[in-house]
Amino acid sequence: xxxxxxxxxxxxxxxxxxxxxxxxxxxxxxxxxxxxxxxxxxxxxxxxxxxxxxxxxxxxxxxxxxxxxxxxxxxxxxxxxxxxxxxxxxxxxxxxxxxxxxxxxxxxx
Length: 109
Description:
Elements: E1 20-26, E2 29-35, H1 37-53, H2 59-66, H3 73-85, H4 98-107
Antiparallel strand pairs: 1-2
């Protein structure tokens, strides 16, 4: 029996349809939030002055995040749905490949 899983992103702020998952780190804690295009833009505009004045962290933190990073079940489902919508080859079960995760992150950041 075949199954199809559908993931609908709902904006965590206002309950409307979300267009993306935004990931950010504040005080060493990582966060994800599903946002509509409008609310994602508001977040980026609000953070803009702080980002502009901040120093970028060296590649060490980025590399550390890529090494064996676990993907939660909810995030894996969202990544799979996105990958399938982009025509990428992704398994319906098991580990999401690093290539697919990286493509998802590039598309959503």
